[in-house]
Write a structure and sequence with these properties.
By secondary structure, the protein is α+β, with helices and mostly antiparallel strands. The chain has five domains: 184 residues, Immunoglobulin-like (Sandwich), CATH 2.60.40.1730; 109 residues, Orthogonal Bundle (Neutral Protease, domain 2); 131 residues, Orthogonal Bundle (Neutral Protease, domain 2), CATH 1.10.390; 93 residues, Immunoglobulin-like; 103 residues, no CATH class. The chain is 33% helix and 27% strand. The protein is built from 16 helices and 27 strands. The strands form six sheets. It has a ten-stranded mixed beta sheet, with no helix packed on it. Strands 8-9-14-11 form a four-stranded antiparallel beta sheet, with no helix packed on it. Strand 4 and strand 5 form a beta hairpin. Helix 2 crosses helix 3, helix 3 packs across helix 4 and helix 8 packs antiparallel against helix 9. The longest helix is centred in the C-terminal third of the chain and has 30 residues. The N and C termini lie far apart (98 Å).
């Protein structure tokens, strides 16, 4: 009765996102999957045994299947009928009509499938004068259901026993786990693999190939770990660097998390992968051709290093602890992006090597009022793909950076370690990690802060006005809506006086005492950076221009990034960008090049003001900072930039006043040369 009621509710409320999710009345505990790929056709056959549990009396088992031809199904050894319905649901009913009682059950399904972009795929390769074929898989996010019937949602974790049948002895098979058996039958050569830990369906990785292998055994923690590379030209010459990167990455993550890499081997395979550059599948990671071969064109060694660093961090953030649903993907991709950045910078001992936080870049992600939040609502299978983008990866990583600034490195690491231990071999939601962070500072606004950034899109603008005894802050929605944030504000006043204050989402304004005789103040400082831009009043901008020589280089750089973010959204005039550019040259600040995007935007805005456009072009060109060809390449006057007319008039007036004399001199000199 409970199941029937749930189905009725789903029909009546068909717009409810939960209606395309599997019911939680049954769940898998173990799969035994056998694949027999045919290398000569476009089809494969297979069978799956699923051990599952039901929590209530059920008339049917509902799981996922897509584009598979079901030839036989048995439920507890009895004949059953499997029918595909909406949302890739596969409903299995006993032919006898009996209901299933609560407890453990066994489901057997035999099937036939077609190779494709998702599911199992057949890939051609060429090496020298020879060609060949290999079988691989692409399951993330919902491709496993195209390869075998399964509970294809990330929170349905189970153990997996994989069996692969290669066509003949010239081929072999690999998967996440070590091989435990190998024998020949009339169907081909059978490869069986050790049971996996509990994991999600999309983390299965497999390959049937005749690639050569290069192997090295590395020291990791208190053991030795075999690492193998499979590719059409695997060798020490081509792949030794990839194995060295792998060892360093896993050693860092093991030390940082306090959890050693959970598996007993690691394989990497490289081929002409067409979708993501690499997979995050522990035990067997699949890479696009060139990303682990240091002697192939297409990627440089730093890109290879970044790819390995990111994907291997997923062994902890994604594989060990998995997002409970794709809405919470930032727990994997945002955290993996951030932690792998920590590793890269730790190894290089140079944070400038791979800079994560650029406020102008973050604001460029918010190009429209309807961008998704970091934790978006997903209301259909088709909407899952939209989550795999820069909002989750880059903005999500920047939010982790801000959290660590608020908590401090030690507290941040403690929270991460507790989170991993609490949800190891299970799944977690965003609130689970938020709760762990909040435990480190229960008296702070950390929960309100995180939820205000996670569950709504956009970013806040903090406006600052100078009063006699205080600086008064107000916050505004970038897109002029009514959204509010809880913001960790940081500032530096003249005399190296720093401070921090919370700007809660229920506060109309915040006042910061002004130190006597202080001429300037700057916000969002190093070591406490947050996800907001600061719109200084004109008086404060003028004060900063007069004291830029007092700012550390990193704060000057951030000020330019902040200005670019404001200018992109027409919150300041071009005079601020051009002033910063000129001042940076006067003071020999090394960050003038960071204004490139802002300068290009100024040109784009002035395309219709031909004379003033020339004035700016001559002035910028005379400084020899930016290559003229590069600027011309990025400036596109064929696209009308929707700049506010008032701001354009102000810009034209400022340019005439400040660059007009240079232009007249330039024209005069040119005329003299001509005569």
């Amino acid at each position: 009765m409970q199941f029937i009621f749930a189905c009725l509710v789903c029909v009546l409320l068909s717009a409810d996102a939960s209606c395309f999710l599997l019911p939680d009345t049954s769940f898998p505990t173990h799969y035994t999957i056998k694949f027999q790929p045919d290398l000569d056709t476009n089809f494969f056959v297979g069978q799956v045994n699923i051990t599952l549990n039901t929590t209530i009396t059920l008339p049917k088992i509902t799981l996922h299947s897509s584009l598979l031809n079901i030839s036989q199904s048995l439920l507890d050894g009895l004949p059953a009928t499997a029918t595909t319905t909406i949302n890739d649901f596969l409903e299995v009913v006993l032919d006898s009509g009996d209901e299933l009682q609560p407890g453990e059950h066994d489901l057997f399904i035999q099937f036939r499938g077609t190779y494709g972009e998702f599911g199992l795929g057949k890939v051609q390769y060429t090496e020298g004068n020879s060609t060949g074929v290999l079988i691989v898989n692409e399951f993330e996010p919902i491709g496993a259901r195209k390869a075998f019937p399964c509970f294809d949602e990330p929170h349905f974790k189970a153990t997996f026993h994989i069996i692969l049948v290669a066509p003949n002895s010239s081929y072999f098979a690999v998967s996440n786990m070590p091989q435990i058996n190998n024998y020949t039958t009339s169907d081909g050569v059978v490869f069986e693999f050790e049971n996996s830990p509990k994991m999600s369906t999309y983390l299965i990785s497999l390959a049937v190939t005749n690639f050569p292998c290069y192997m090295n055994t590395v020291h990791l923690d208190d053991r030795y770990l075999p690492i193998r590379v499979y590719s059409s030209n695997a060798s020490e010459y081509n792949n030794k660097r990839a194995i060295r990167y792998a060892q360093k990455a896993m050693s860092f993550y093991s030390n940082y998390t306090g959890i050693s890499y959970p598996l007993s081997k690691l394989d990497m395979i490289e081929y002409a992968k067409t979708r993501a550059v690499a997979t995050e599948t522990w035990g067997l990671v699949q890479f696009r051709r060139g990303t682990i071969n240091e002697n192939l064109l297409g990627y440089d060694n730093f890109q290879r290093f970044l790819t390995i660093s990111h994907e291997f961090s997923h062994f902890w953030f994604g594989d060990l602890v998995t997002n409970s649903w794709w809405s919470h993907l930032w727990l994997q991709e945002g955290l993996a992006t951030y932690i792998s950045t920590k590793f890269v910078n730790d190894l290089s001992k140079n944070e400038a090597l791979f800079k994560l936080f650029d406020i102008s870049d973050l604001f460029r992600l918010e190009t429209k009022p309807n961008t998704i939040p970091i934790v978006p609502k997903i209301e259909s299978n088709a909407e899952i793909e939209k989550v795999f983008g820069d909002i989750v990866y880059a903005k999500g990583a920047a939010l982790f950076y801000s959290v660590e600034n608020v908590l401090g490195p030690d507290a941040f690491q403690r929270a991460i370690r507790r989170y991993l231990r609490a949800f190891a071999y299970s799944s977690a939601s965003s609130n689970d990690l938020v709760d762990e962070f909040a435990k480190e500072k229960p008296e702070s606004n950390i929960t309100s802060f995180l939820k205000s950034y996670l569950y709504q899109n956009g970013l806040p603008i903090v406006a600052v006005e100078q009063h006699t005894d205080a600086y008064v802050l107000t916050q505004h929605d970038l897109w002029h809506g009514d959204r509010r944030w809880t913001i960790p504000i940081s500032y530096l006043q003249e005399g190296n006086n720093t401070g921090h204050v919370w700007f809660s989402d229920d506060q109309q304004s915040v006042s910061i005492p002004r130190i006597a005789n202080s001429s300037w103040i700057i916000f969002n400082i190093e070591g406490f950076r947050g996800l907001y831009a600061v719109n200084y009043s004109q008086v404060l901008w003028e004060n900063l221009f007069q004291h830029l020589h007092d700012l550390p280089l990193n704060e000057f750089s951030h000020l330019t990034e902040n200005a670019e973010a404001l200018y992109d959204h027409q919150l300041i005039g071009c005079d601020i960008i051009l002033n910063l550019f000129d001042k940076s040259l006067e003071l020999s600040k090394e960050s003038s090049h960071t204004l490139f995007n802002g300068i290009i935007k100024v040109f784009s805005n002035m395309c219709e003001a031909a004379e003033e456009y020339k004035m700016v072009k001559e002035h910028i060109g005379s400084k020899k900072i930016f290559n003229d060809l590069a600027m011309d390449f990025f400036i596109d006057c064929s696209k009308k930039d929707n700049i506010d007319n008032e701001k354009l008039d102000q810009c034209i007036s400022w340019v005439r006043t400040n660059y007009g004399h240079e232009h007249l001199h330039h024209v005069h000199t040119k005329n003299e040369s001509a005569s």
